[in-house]
Write a structure and sequence with these properties.
alpha+beta; 14 helices; 5-stranded antiparallel beta sheet; about 300 residues; elongated; single chain; 5 strands; about 50% helix
Amino acid sequence: MNGKSRLGEFLRTRRSQLSPDEAEVPTYGERRRVPGLRREELALLAGVSASYYARLEQGHSMNASPEVLDAIARALRLDESERLHLLDLARSAKPRGRGRRPAPERVTEATGQLLDALADVPAIVVGRRSDVLAWNRLGHALFAGHLDPGAPDLPDQRPNMARLVFLDAHTRELYTHWPSKARAVVGNLRMVAGQYPEDSALHALVGELSAKSEDFASLWADHRVKACTVADYEMRHPLVGALTVTQQTLNVGPGPTVVVATTRAGSPSRTTLALLAEVATEAGATAATAAPATAAAPAASSRPGNRVSDS
């Protein structure tokens, strides 16, 4: 789907979701065949001609000014994230030369230092496509303790938080109110897709999730946009039980973001998270002591009495 199609689909979908009552448009008791506002009603609210707005939805007008787009955003009752998404879609609809492929995402030294400093707080570094680029021990234990802790270090095996939320049974069970987490993931992916229209890997991810998850496909078709900033989630961790965390996205400049999970001071959730930290530390210590023994095993086979024949 090209930029013009994405812009038109977004406008049509959001118009259909805005009722005449919400927009304070009189209907005089008439029965309507389709939900939401009509094109001419939305155009009137935005202060543009009905024919111009129709061309915009159909992808035949690609030079809408920021002022016109802001007027349409107000008419559609878009919030700030949705308004910015509309502007991104309008920019991607304009003809331009061959776009540059987004640079590979890496964890900078400064971000790595931040992750180390957050040792007592669950933290993960997430790329624009929701790939996990790094996590600290507690972040791994909270969000994906069933996965290999070294997976983020291998580009072809990196966990992807969107895939985990929609396709991984462990992660689905982790969130008590899974639909709210699912909506947040889709809303953020929608926003990022508007910002990076040339990112083929991102669009491939959306295609994969749409094909494998009916829930994702339904939410994606809704065209809701939401930046993942701060949200509270009730979780059911398989090792330590129930806890409520506040997930916050820390923007440390262009590039990957850091997501942290905090708990209220003095709350039962704080105690539960401390217990998880103990469990994660013990598991890490066990793995560290087991590694040398595994490495020493081949050497033991070369000792006298343990030689393997060359049959």
